[in-house]
Design goal:
It is a single chain. The mean pLDDT is 76. By secondary structure, the chain is mostly helical. It is elongated, with a radius of gyration of 19 Å.
Length: 104
């Protein structure tokens, strides 16, 4: 599910930037930077969750049950952070897009 949201945001962001009245080089640089920012954030969150799972598995089955709840909670917070980050990017793109809209 989160993959579909991320994909949708990326496609929307790319479309918004591509339709912006900027030079091609500026548009490409913007796309590259925003794509890298999103990729870096998601990669960082994935590594952190992966490390938590590894630590929990190493600590034994008894602790695993408790730590699994903690991991699930932390994963949920990380997902929320990723969504908030993507929402901010969309807000920026919406503002850029408004400048292209003509009012009658």
């Amino acid at each position: 599910m989160i993959h579909k949201i991320v994909l949708g945001v990326l496609v929307g962001a790319a479309a918004g930037i591509l339709l912006a009245p900027e030079k091609g080089s500026v548009t490409r640089a913007t796309l590259k930077k925003e794509g890298k920012d999103i990729k870096d954030q998601l990669s960082k969150d994935f590594v952190e969750v992966k490390e938590d799972v590894s630590k929990a598995a190493a600590s034994g089955k008894e602790k695993l049950k408790k730590e699994f709840k903690d991991i699930a909670s932390k994963t949920s917070y990380k997902t929320e952070q990723a969504i908030t980050f993507l929402e901010k990017q969309l807000a920026i793109l919406k503002e850029k897009n408004k400048t292209l809209q003509q009012t009658s």
